[in-house]
Amino acid sequence: MKELDKTYSSGIEERIYKKWLDKNYFHADVNTDKTPFCIVMPPPNITGHLHMGHALDNTMQDIIIRYKRMQGFETLWQPGTDHAAIATEVKVIDKLKAQGKDKNAIGREAFLKEAWDWKEEYGSKIIKQLHRLGCSADWQRERFTMDEGCSDAVLEFFIRLYEKGYIYKGSRIINWCPVCKTSISDAEVLHDESEGNFWYIKYPVADMEGEYVEIATTRPETMLGDSAVAVNPHDKRYLHLVGKMLRLPLSDRTIPVIADDYVDMEFGTGCVKITPAHDPNDFEVGKRHKLAEINIFNDDATIDLPGSKYDGMDRYVARKEIVADLEKAGLLVKVKPHLHNAGTHDRCKTVVEPMIKPQWFVRMDELAKPAIKVIEDNKLKFVPESFSKTYLHWLENIKDWCISRQLWWGHRIPAYYCNECGKITVAKKEPEQCSCCGKKAGFMRDEDTLDTWFSSALWPFSTLGWPDKTPEYDYFYPTDVLVTGYDIIFFWVVRMVFSALDETGKVPFDTVLIHGLVRDSQGRKMSKSLGNGIDPLEVIDKYGADALRMTLITGNAPGNDMRFYFERVEASRNFANKIWNASRFIMMNMSHIDTEHKIPDTLKTEDKWILSKTNSLVKEVSDNLDKYELGIALGKLYDFTWEEFCDWYIEMVKPRLREREKDSISADSALWTLKTVLSDLLKLLHPFMPFVTEEIFCNLNNLSEDESIMVSKWPVYDEKLNFKTYEASVEVLKEAVRKVRNIRASKNVPASKKTAVYIVSDDNKHLDIFKESEGIFKHLAYASEVVLKNSAENLEKGCIMAVLAGINIYMPLAQLVDIAEEKQRLKKEEGKILNEIHRAESMLVNEKFTLKAPAAKVEEEKVKLEKYKGMLGQVKEQLAQLESI
Description:
The chain is an alpha/beta fold and about 900 residues long. α1 (about 10-20) packs across α22 and α10 crosses α15 (about 490-505). It is globular. The two termini are about 55 Å apart.
């Protein structure tokens, strides 16, 4: 048998991972003899680096995939990366700036070459980091959202939706980022409460001297684009003004007063300025009343009003100027502080501007219905189930999805405009002639690219070869479980589901396992601004991947955020060391024997106990993993390994191993049990801690380089190993040992000092437990002898007693302590306690103290007095006991 190093070192991880890669253990094939199990990895961005969210997400996936692989499934963990449209484009732009180059100056083709160069340089960075974490994805099948196959799938999907009438181009209100200079979807807008103001402004009524309406706005600069002021048709205050014209302040325009149910009579002044080009609600009002749509902003959010004094000003500079001018004109009534939700771009944190722009949209009404129904029909489950409400809320309130982006890096929209008549043709490649005018005048392709989520929505099936009917698609699709964070349910999960249902007719996965965020030890979200981010790679360098993985899963419940403590990482490393040291001990004792696989017929009570407990553990952990209760499963494994196996069973059998020459059969039975249980424990722990379990298992079982724990069989529950009677017997022994040890600890008795222990019970079944396991109990209870009795008659005087159900345990006090020394010690203790009682009583009868001291202080002294009186009673009782000896 190979020998383990004296100490566990995480330096073994690189060697082991290379072995796994070299042996193709992660690779999946189409194998009709096996049941497939497939997970698609949420594709990390090519701009990214491994952070704690990635570490948690991928550790959870790896645990599930390793478990299923060992169960005999043909497991595919499909990896890949995302082109991350905006994020990558910004990185490349910054890189060019540092080189003194400009994106627009070099042109689209040159820019895209730079972007692909970036992808080649940085695209595999996070994948290599996931190797460090131990991820067993099928790296031979790695995909990229812009590789040839995925790009073909995106074009096919776009064209199919367009032909069904689900995709259209139109001018609608969209979210515009003035920094990234692109449209963004509703899901990419963060709504954070921020401090602002309500500006109350007078709009004079034309041809009615001295009369005006008063509006309140949080964005006075947008008044330059107002097309009307609206009032509620039931608001008697303003009915006489409906149809009248108002003079728009700071301009030479007049605008009408209109009536619309959209206006809340109770909010603000009951008069609302309507700016159709810069507010989604106003846009709808404008459509109903056929109002002008006046866009007052350039793409960088500067004012676009040639001839106006505000033309070219930044929106916030213009705001200050406009407010000042309104005040000068006597039209500013008041300014009132107001908390409001400002929409910001989730990526660059810039306040977005609602703008009317021609964009491409996906009609969502019909696509959303089947995605809702799969939840109602229980064809798609969330773990925890509560997150299905988040999913449904988003779908039930969904708006048309703006899918066009004003970027160069991404999938370019396959729409071609005829140079002769302007007719749009949607096709995979440029048409030869226009289907409308019949001319061959050439075409101009749409400049925009698709939202990055449009391509990642196809990830579960595009990576398997769709739209072609590949063997992989037929075998592995639909996939089984998606592991992701609650923050991208509406970004990604919703879109994968409705896209898959529309194109494949199947739910892309049956279960969505949701995890929370990894927060710092104070519960704060990790961020650059707080400087509280923790680099997983640094943790791996110091403690090893197994320790990090175990820390991330310990106590982790689906959907809940978790706090990251370095103390936990150290505890995880200590656990790895515990397993390592226990394994070394077992293997050193096994060097001269050959343990058979069959169950020996010479097993003792403690052997059957640990085998039975392990058997139950196998069932429980498997059930937990099937329900994706990863944290609960690991908690059970931790407790069992540390306590039952290491602290109890190994200690129980040490005498049998030491006395091998006297009783080799007993020693060999113990060694068979040790190896069997350890092998099963290593298998159960492997998905969580793959490296340390691989190293131990291969050495324990003398495996060749072509074998691995990760392709060994997962343990299964075996009714033959169900020894409930023996479990009960050993639990009685353990409780008796605890009682004895507690007594010895209370008397500060060293382990080297042996004492007699009397077990008294009128039930011979209880006594038989100690008779059959006398050697174990004697060893664990530090007993010089164990005497079994049916009654307590004729016991020597001065015994300390402990009580179990139906059993009394006695220990002669004279054997535990030196009676004379103990009496002297207790009398000194009695004197100290009496002094404390006297001090407390004196204070409590002193009115200067009881009347002037704080009530809490007085109460504290009363509590102390009662405590000292209780301690005095205990000391007197112990002294009386000693006097009787």
